[in-house]
């Protein structure tokens, strides 16, 4: 953690690269954590980054390549040969290796796979590539420590030592039967404390949580969070142990899911960061702004229908931004609570009950806001009928906006569509339009124009 | 995972409770995970929940109480005696125990602390209570396995076995010197593979990541994510090892932080859930809606200033919801990207550069949208001057909105205020007002009214 990425450091690295001072560079990065080296690479030019990757040994650079920005990794891989990429892949755990391979262009993929020396490793990667990246199969690694229920503790420790060489972190030792089916688990602690002569069948814990290979990544995250697990075994349709998922991958799933929901709520599609290029950022933002523009045009044409009322009731038109804003705000609030509840698996009870609750809530909020608005307009405009019309409209708009905000994400979720898209400009725009339509309709009913 | 919480199950539990069928209840919950029992308790009445807590042994119920909703836990504790609470606390790890104690009313806290049997445990809890709950000290537990660098591996394994009894999950073995200062770590795997006669000083890894007891929880989360750690030791100002933080606590920090940012962006303060009471939800939502209302009233009075233009330029007033919506959308987009970047520690470079980038981005987006709007109005209204005025205004509004959206969170962050409050109704409301002011001012300049 003492490694600070400063401007001086970056300049120093660039200079060493241009002077080809390889020994000095190797020394500089000696014992530096791969996540820190990755940050340095993100800030260098692509050519410089490639230079460093070629210089350092692949045990280090394989991990570095996992940590650099996607864009940087893509560019670096473009400049490396298939053989060079394969030697990086060789150093990675199967889950990371599969993720990296999956990013390569189709043709490149095959070239690289053929260059991988370790055939077993290559076979496992191919297996992992078959799974959807948002499923348990897409998250799991093949590296795990498993023992047969018929072994003794002594044999188990021996076999484990061999297996553990391959596994970075041993969380649990999984126990299988002769058919490879998951039977239970053993903790390292238990093993450390058991007598060497005991049989595994007598000491293992048969009560083990697991997920199925086709379970959604989000569901795996929810299970691991709920039961506070640091690793979970993955079984196939026959109950055969096929991999394990560790908590660090789940942390990324949770983080990405939350970031994505947040961005969608803000009207930003795609996974973008503040440092992305203007083109990438425009692609993520312009479509939503365009949706807002179309919504605004619709609102304008609705107002056009009521243009006749303008001469006599100019004030009515002054309040359209207020109505639109309130409709949007209420819609976003209601939808956000539902979306978050759905993501956290916390929506219980029937849809009808949910809508009734939202109506009550909207009525409480709407009542206070409408009363305030009524008094304000009455005093400032000295027109009680107008004040009444506008505040009744506001009250109705708030209730309808709450209902729309609640029902759209629930509807999308039922249809298997990510409800998070309903929390952003989508809901504000539709609520703007509905809000203004309801507002003028009710005002017309009351004032009569 | 085979445990499903159905309506039938809940009815069955309620019936068993009212008939006081204790044996049947105990059997029902035998081997059920505490997280599942907690979910059942969340759905029962408080009296029923208290009944279950009193029935089951405290080894189970202590964990159950950690997992139930805060509200339920509070109610249950109100009905338990100080002695009963203390026996639950006795079963918990120090970090969880401190969290639970911290929630109790001041007077109750002391009563409970005095009833705790294990003096060492009580002392450790008191120490943890001193730290801010959003700091490393507030997250850490005192339970950890530490060995002296001067011991042999044999002595180490012996001492460890004793210590490990107290520790649920052994991630790393921390190595300290005679003064208690953190020197490095040993992995269980290394220990498993080392010769029993080696000295710890010769086998431990001196390169260990750690955090300081006063570091912010969010920073700890970022370090653990970046370096992919499952546990991290915590040291005090003198470098003395005082605790350790595990990844499961960090998962909650990340989740809570993301949920909070998302709720703030949607105009919801406080940590609320879809199932909270209407009063709680109103408290979280009404203030932001009121802010929106005041914003709308300001927009209305700004429009009032330009009322004279209404007779001749009615169309101008039809486009105010569009302008307000665009200003809001752009503001939310810009601020969300900055807030997310700040949370992920991904905002590099100077503020000036950041603002220049946002201006370029807004110009690109604004250009396309303004051109579209210009053509649309020109064709539908057959008034080129009006089309020009409205689209130039839109272009300017988008740029200003982007600047406000970028600079407010950066400013708040510099001031030590959570920038996430700038992404919700706060930014839409202020952008509505500025947007409409700019819109009418520019339109006036061009059309001249």
From TrEMBL, chains A, B:
<keyword id="KW-0129">CBS domain</keyword>
<feature type="transmembrane region" description="Helical">
    <location>
        <begin position="424"/>
        <end position="447"/>
    </location>
</feature>
<feature type="transmembrane region" description="Helical">
    <location>
        <begin position="315"/>
        <end position="339"/>
    </location>
</feature>
<feature type="transmembrane region" description="Helical">
    <location>
        <begin position="386"/>
        <end position="412"/>
    </location>
</feature>
<feature type="transmembrane region" description="Helical">
    <location>
        <begin position="359"/>
        <end position="379"/>
    </location>
</feature>
<feature type="transmembrane region" description="Helical">
    <location>
        <begin position="286"/>
        <end position="306"/>
    </location>
</feature>
<dbReference type="GO" id="GO:0005886">
    <property type="term" value="C:plasma membrane"/>
</dbReference>
<comment type="function">
    <text>Acts as a magnesium transporter.</text>
</comment>
<dbReference type="Pfam" id="PF03448">
    <property type="entry name" value="MgtE_N"/>
</dbReference>
<keyword id="KW-1003">Cell membrane</keyword>
<keyword id="KW-0479">Metal-binding</keyword>
<dbReference type="GO" id="GO:0015095">
    <property type="term" value="F:magnesium ion transmembrane transporter activity"/>
</dbReference>
<dbReference type="InterPro" id="IPR036739">
    <property type="entry name" value="SLC41_membr_dom_sf"/>
</dbReference>
<feature type="domain" description="CBS">
    <location>
        <begin position="204"/>
        <end position="260"/>
    </location>
</feature>
<comment type="subunit">
    <text>Homodimer.</text>
</comment>
<dbReference type="InterPro" id="IPR006668">
    <property type="entry name" value="Mg_transptr_MgtE_intracell_dom"/>
</dbReference>
<feature type="domain" description="CBS">
    <location>
        <begin position="140"/>
        <end position="203"/>
    </location>
</feature>
<dbReference type="InterPro" id="IPR038076">
    <property type="entry name" value="MgtE_N_sf"/>
</dbReference>
<dbReference type="Pfam" id="PF00571">
    <property type="entry name" value="CBS"/>
</dbReference>
<keyword id="KW-0812">Transmembrane</keyword>
<dbReference type="InterPro" id="IPR046342">
    <property type="entry name" value="CBS_dom_sf"/>
</dbReference>
<keyword id="KW-0460">Magnesium</keyword>
<dbReference type="InterPro" id="IPR000644">
    <property type="entry name" value="CBS_dom"/>
</dbReference>
<keyword id="KW-1133">Transmembrane helix</keyword>
<dbReference type="GO" id="GO:0046872">
    <property type="term" value="F:metal ion binding"/>
</dbReference>
<dbReference type="Pfam" id="PF01769">
    <property type="entry name" value="MgtE"/>
</dbReference>
<dbReference type="InterPro" id="IPR006669">
    <property type="entry name" value="MgtE_transporter"/>
</dbReference>
<dbReference type="InterPro" id="IPR006667">
    <property type="entry name" value="SLC41_membr_dom"/>
</dbReference>
<comment type="similarity">
    <text>Belongs to the SLC41A transporter family.</text>
</comment>
<keyword id="KW-0472">Membrane</keyword>
<protein>
    <recommendedName>
        <fullName>Magnesium transporter MgtE</fullName>
    </recommendedName>
</protein>
<keyword id="KW-0813">Transport</keyword>
């Amino acid at each position: 953690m003492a490694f600070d990425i400063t401007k001086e450091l970056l300049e120093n690295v660039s200079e060493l690269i241009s002077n080809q001072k390889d020994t000095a560079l190797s020394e500089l990065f000696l014992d530096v954590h791969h996540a820190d080296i990755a940050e340095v690479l993100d800030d260098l030019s692509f050519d410089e980054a490639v230079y460093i990757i070629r210089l350092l040994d692949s045990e280090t650079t394989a991990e570095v390549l996992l940590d650099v920005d996607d864009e940087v990794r893509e560019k670096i891989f473009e400049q490396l040969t298939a053989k060079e990429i394969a030697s990086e892949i060789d150093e990675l755990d199967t889950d990371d290796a599969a993720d990296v391979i999956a990013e390569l262009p189709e043709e490149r993929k095959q070239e690289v796979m053929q260059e991988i020396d370790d055939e077993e490793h290559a076979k496992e990667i191919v297996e992992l590539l078959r799974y959807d990246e948002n499923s348990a199969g897409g998250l799991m690694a093949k590296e795990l420590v498993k023992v047969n229920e018929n072994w003794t503790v002594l044999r188990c420790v021996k076999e484990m030592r061999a297996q553990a060489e391959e596994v970075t972190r041993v969380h649990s030792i999984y126990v299988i039967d002769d058919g490879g089916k998951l039977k239970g688990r053993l903790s390292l602690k238990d093993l450390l404390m058991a007598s060497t002569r005991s049989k595994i069948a007598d000491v293992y814990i048969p009560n083990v949580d697991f997920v199925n290979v086709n379970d959604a990544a989000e569901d795996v995250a929810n299970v691991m969070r709920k039961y506070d697990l640091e690793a979970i075994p993955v079984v196939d349709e026959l109950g055969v142990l096929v991999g394990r998922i560790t908590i660090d991958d789940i942390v990324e799933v949770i983080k990405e899911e939350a970031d994505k929901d947040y961005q969608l709520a803000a009207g930003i599609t795609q996974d973008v960061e503040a440092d992305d290029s203007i083109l990438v950022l425009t692609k993520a933002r312009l479509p939503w702004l365009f949706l807002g523009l179309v919504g605004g045009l619709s609102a304008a044409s609705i107002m056009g229908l009521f243009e006749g009322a303008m001469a006599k009731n100019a004030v009515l038109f002054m309040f359209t931004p207020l109505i639109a804003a309130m409709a949007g705000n209420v819609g976003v609030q209601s939808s956000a609570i539902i979306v978050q509840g759905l993501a956290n698996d916390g929506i219980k009870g029937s849809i009808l009950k949910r809508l009734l609750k939202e109506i009550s809530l909207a009525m409480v909020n709407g009542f206070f806001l409408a009363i305030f608005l009524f008094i304000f307009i009455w005093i400032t405009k000295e027109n009680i009928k107008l004040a009444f019309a506008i505040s009744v409209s506001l009250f109705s708009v708030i209730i309808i906006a709450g209902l729309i905000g609640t029902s759209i994400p629930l509807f999308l979720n039922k249809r298997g569509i990510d409800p998070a898209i309903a929390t952003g400009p989508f809901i504000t725009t539709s609520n703007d339009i509905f809000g203004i339509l309801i507002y003028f309709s009710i005002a017309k009913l009351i004032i009569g124009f």
